[in-house]
Amino acid sequence: MTWTLIVITSTVYALEVLLHPEHLQQLAYLFGIVPARYSHPDWALQVGFPVDDYWPFVTSMFLHAGLLHLVANMWILWVFGDNVEDRMGRWRFLVFYLLCGVGAGLAHWWTNPHSIVPTVGASGAIAGVLGAYIVLYPKARVLTLVLLFFWPITFEVSAFFYLFYWFAIQLLSGTAALLGPEQIGGIAWWAHVGGFAAGVALLPLFVRTWRLAPAGHGSTSNRSLTRGGVKTG
After folding, report:
1. Cβ neighbours around 72 below 10 Å, total
2. What angle do CA 55, 61, 62 make, to 5 degrees?
3. What is the CATH number of domain 2-232?
4. How confident is the model at residue 151 (pLDDT cuts 50, 70, 90)?
5. Stretch 141-170: mean pLDDT, rounded?
6. DSSP classification of residue 228
7. Considering the entire predicted model, what is its pTM?
8. Which of 109, 140, 143, 146 could hold 221 in an S-S bridge, CB 3.0 to 4.6 Å?
9. How far apart are CA 94 and CA 92, in angstroms?
């Protein structure tokens, strides 16, 4: 199912590339999450949004704002998704993934109720996968790549440290965004926070065998990690 999600999402992006820029913008507004669409229904009707259409909370996670955005998200899904899927089974994992994406969208809506900027991307759903991974495989080793004065250095850290650090960055960045301009960074930080929290909360409902994996099991050390309008998630 992890590979199926990657293929479907990549195929959707390939279709996006074929669209005229004007049609691509329309696609982002109709199938991405525009918070003001739900917070201000009168405005939504005036600009022509369909009434009572909540499908964007699902469809938005299959759209991406650029090739780098797509590759980064699919890379992280490939690194962490299969181990979580192993503990859930393919169909439970699919439902879990979609619910995390919806949770991420709701978190973004709640923290940006007046935004008219469409938000697209799978990283909210993927953040849910990371939330599940940190609980299931806290002692797994993650091969991390950093640049020291433009010189690449790799080293291993525990999945718990790596993902806790990632979550802390999202939380701090999201808090800073709330205190600053609404469009700051172009990144839906709270979608990441909401997706991660949803993943941790929903995990007990979807995991087939509740046990922590021994150190090294589920290791991502054989896969190097690197992470670096329309808001991206």
Report:
1. 20
2. 95
3. 1.20.1540.10
4. low
5. 67
6. -
7. 0.81
8. 143
9. 5
